[in-house]
């Protein structure tokens, strides 16, 4: 029985060792790790990382304004019709929305961009492949899977204790009772520790590495400033006001956690909520 109790304790400690080690590793990210992140610092990717699908649109619009392809005044956006020959898919799509609804403000551009479905999914996947954000299935199921992986050996050892012990004795009742209580305590502790990691809770899927990457990024262009900090971080606040108008900045934290949203929010929901079903994200 003593050996089985030791095995039970080892199984429980090994179960909670992974989330604890992961939390420690997140807290110990060093600047020298950041150069290993293979990410092209373009507005599309930085915007998605900095504040989600809405920030992606904001950074793309800022890039178009900086290149003279779009002008802004009093919150209204206008396409100039020049310099559009070398635009990538995202920029061309956002420009198309600006041509349709730019006069209604950046908020309407975000909403329509989401409904037209840009390549948000590919941008998110690109970031997830580099460990900067957590994929939606991992956010939803990894902590639970780890908890169940802890429960399985605990249950096995407990049944072995029940079979090997002398039924009815005080030592039997105590050991089996504590073992059964551990079925709840250790899996729940493992789940809680897993959910405490950056990227696994709330509406912000950025990992500790993703947040560190943004903090260390050189925001030397207006598009990068908007991508990382929003319009509030743009050096030229007069320009920021002319683009943003009365609209609020986009951020992961501002995304509503509900299924029946639309536009940008609908895209964001589909990125991290498995229950939302498949959303036809572009490539």
Overview in brief:
With 283 residues, the chain is mostly helical. The chain has helices at residues 2-27, 43-51, 53-66, 89-101, 106-116, 120-129, 136-164, 170-195, 208-216, 222-229, 237-244, 264-272; strands spanning 70-73, 76-79.
Helix and strand arrangement:
Layout: H1 2-27, H2 43-51, H3 53-66, E1 70-73, E2 76-79, H4 89-101, H5 106-116, H6 120-129, H7 136-164, H8 170-195, H9 208-216, H10 222-229, H11 237-244, H12 264-272
Antiparallel strand pairs: 1-2
Helix pairs in contact: 1-7, 1-8, 2-3, 2-6, 2-10, 3-4, 3-5, 3-10, 4-5, 5-12, 7-8
Question: What can you see in these coordinates?
Answer:
The protein is mostly helical and 283 residues long. The chain is built from 12 helices and 2 strands; from the N terminus they run H-H-H-E-E-H-H-H-H-H-H-H-H-H. It has a two-stranded antiparallel ribbon with strand order 1-2. A hairpin with a 2-residue loop joins strand 1 and strand 2. The N and C termini lie far apart (58 Å).
């Amino acid at each position: 029985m003593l050996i089985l109790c030791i095995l039970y304790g080892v199984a429980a400690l090994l179960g909670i060792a992974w989330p604890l080690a992961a939390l420690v590793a997140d807290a110990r990210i060093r600047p020298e790790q950041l150069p290993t992140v293979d990410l092209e610092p373009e507005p599309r990717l930085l915007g998605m990382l900095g504040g989600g699908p809405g920030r992606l649109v904001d950074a793309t619009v800022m890039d178009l304004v900086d290149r003279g392809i779009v002008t802004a005044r009093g919150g209204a956006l206008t396409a100039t019709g020049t310099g559009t020959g070398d635009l990538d898919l995202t920029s061309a799509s956002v420009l198309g929305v600006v041509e349709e609804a730019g006069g209604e403000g950046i908020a309407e551009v975000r909403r329509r961009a989401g409904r037209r479905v840009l390549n948000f999914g590919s941008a998110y996947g690109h970031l997830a492949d580099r460990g900067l954000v957590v994929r939606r299935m991992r956010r939803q199921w990894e902590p639970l899977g780890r908890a169940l992986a802890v429960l399985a050996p605990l249950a096995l050892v407990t049944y072995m204790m029940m079979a090997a012990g002398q039924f009815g004795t005080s030592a039997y009742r105590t050991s089996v009772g504590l073992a059964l209580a551990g079925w709840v305590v250790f899996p729940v502790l493992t789940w809680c520790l897993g959910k405490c990691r950056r990227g696994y809770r709330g509406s912000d899927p950025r990992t500790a590495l993703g947040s560190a990457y943004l903090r260390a990024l050189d925001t030397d262009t207006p598009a990068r400033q908007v991508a990382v900090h929003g319009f509030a971080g743009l050096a030229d606040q007069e320009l920021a006001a002319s683009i943003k108008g009365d609209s609020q900045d986009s951020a992961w934290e501002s995304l509503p956690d509900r299924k029946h949203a639309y536009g940008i929010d609908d895209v964001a929901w589909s990125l991290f909520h498995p229950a939302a079903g498949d959303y036809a994200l572009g490539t």
